[in-house]
Amino acid sequence: MEQATLVRRAVEDQGLTRAPRENVVPLQTRREHTPSGVYTPVDLGHEDLELLAEIATGVTTEVAARHLELSARTLRRRIRNICDVLGVNTPIEAVVWAARRQLI
Fold it and tell me: Which of 5, 46, 50, 59 could cross-link to 63 by cystine, CB 3.0-4.6 Å?
């Protein structure tokens, strides 16, 4: 079973078993701070989502890079940039972010 499917199921199960906390902002409504001081919704491009979908399948960085016709170094750099944009620490957190929004 693909990681993305497992992530989606975990997100669905989480929504059924946990009551939302008052002091926690749901990930769906998280907004990122821009230099101008205005909060804007986070949005990823098609290529970024394609990269996250590839990661969600569980392949290695080298295999994902080959599938996307990138060097492994470029792929790692793009993953890091996506994580920075989303405000997450790991690629799997970025995959969860996209899965929660049903983007992958």
Answer: 59
Let me know: does 98 contact 49? Beta carbons within 8 Å.
yes
* Domain layout of the chain by residue ranges: 1-18+46-104
Q: Are 41 and 97 in contact (CB under 8 A)?
A: no
- Angle, CA of 36, 103 and 27, to the nearest 5°: 55
Question: pLDDT by residue (tens digit) across 69-103?
Answer: 999 999 999 999 999 999 999 999 999 999 998 98
Tell me if residue 31 falls in helix, strand or coil. Answer: strand
φ/ψ (deg, to 5) at 58? 90, 10
Answer yes or no: CATH 3.40.50.2300 is held by domain 1-18+46-104: no
Q: Give the number of other Cβ atoms within 10 Å of residue 38's Cβ.
A: 8
pLDDT digits (tens, 9 = 90+) for 4-47: 676 667 667 665 544 555 544 444 444 444 455 444 467 788 99
